[in-house]
Design brief:
By secondary structure, the protein is of the alpha+beta class. The chain is built from 5 helices and 17 strands. The two termini are about 15 Å apart. The protein has an 8-stranded mixed beta barrel with strand order 1-2-3-4-6-7-8-17.
Length: about 300
């Protein structure tokens, strides 16, 4: 038997039980891919990360959902960075190696910011389905749309659906009978990130955005993610692709409707560099014991 230490954290959190939960395994050496997937299924969080040595960065990070491995994701980046800093005493600036590339991460206290692994104009694509059909799949009307839905990729491709009002974001309700029609991403995920700009001014001079992220679950049905850093980065990519005025400073409000309020800070520089930040709270620590594979 081998013992592996893990930590439980909440990312984009303002309170102890807010934010998006994450499990981080401090040292995953000796774990095979299947064991990592099994552990992700055991904890049954949206993502679980595994820290490994890296020759190119402060650490290599592998991200698993309960169903598959991901190339990159937002809240696992920030939560894992806090664990790596604590373990290595590496200061408030470090880099993490993901399958999607090397991602720089910086901290002020326990508020972390990553720079999306993309440069220049992000990858975009028109969806295969019509705007009207996408709106219907989300329980919305065509006149709820601010603009045409768009696939955006700044590290993980997702379908972005801009809406006219925060009220429309709140009203969105995916139609489970239409899940077979949803277009999958390059990773085979069926997702939709609905968002709207709030006319009310946000704190610290930031533009407020209300957002929700839906994804189809393994085995059927739709789940809602409380705080999605990769989709927040893609919102920055949407701003760049749409030619919106830069720089942009945005506060994304997500997770309130699933009782896990998340607050994400999005900054898009004039050169198109996209940074996403949020607060990280460590909740607890523990260990698991796993039999070693036979030679």
């Amino acid at each position: 038997m081998h013992t592996y230490a893990f930590r439980l954290l909440n990312v984009f959190a303002q309170t102890t039980f807010g934010g998006n939960p994450l499990c981080v395994f401090e040292d995953a050496r000796g774990l095979e891919d299947q064991a990592m997937l099994d552990l992700a299924r055991q904890f049954n969080l949206s993502e679980t990360t595994f820290v490994l040595p890296s020759k190119q960065a402060d650490a290599q990070v592998r991200i698993f959902t309960p169903g598959y491995e991901m190339r990159f994701a937002g809240h696992p980046t920030l939560g894992t960075a806090q664990v790596v800093r604590d373990l290595a005493g590496s200061g408030d600036s470090l880099s993490l190696e993901f399958a999607a590339g090397i991602v720089p991460v910086h901290a002020r206290g326990d508020t972390w910011t990553f720079t999306a692994p993309t440069a220049g104009v992000p990858k975009t694509a028109a969806p295969a389905l019509s705007a009207a059909e996408i709106a219907g799949q989300l329980g919305l009307r065509i006149d709820d749309l601010l603009d045409a839905p768009m696939w955006v990729d700044t590290g993980a491709d997702q379908l972005l659906v801009p809406l006219k009002t925060p009220e429309a974001v709140q009203r969105a309700q995916p139609d489970s009978s239409q899940l077979h029609r949803w277009q999958p991403s390059s990773l085979g995920r069926k997702t939709a990130y609905v968002f709207a700009f709030d006319p009310a001014p946000g704190p610290d001079g930031r533009q407020a955005v209300r957002a929700r992220y839906f994804f189809t679950k393994e085995g059927g049905g739709v789940a809602e993610d409380p705080g999605t850093g990769s989709a927040c980065a893609n919102l920055g990519g949407w701003l760049v692709a749409q030619g919106k005025e830069l720089p942009a400073r945005i506060l994304v409000q997500q997770g309130d409707q699933v009782a896990r309020p998340c607050r994400l800070y999005l900054d898009v520089a004039p050169d198109g560099a996209i940074r996403v930040g949020g607060n990280v709270i460590e909740l607890g620590r523990g260990t698991v014991r796993i039999p070693q594979p036979r030679p």
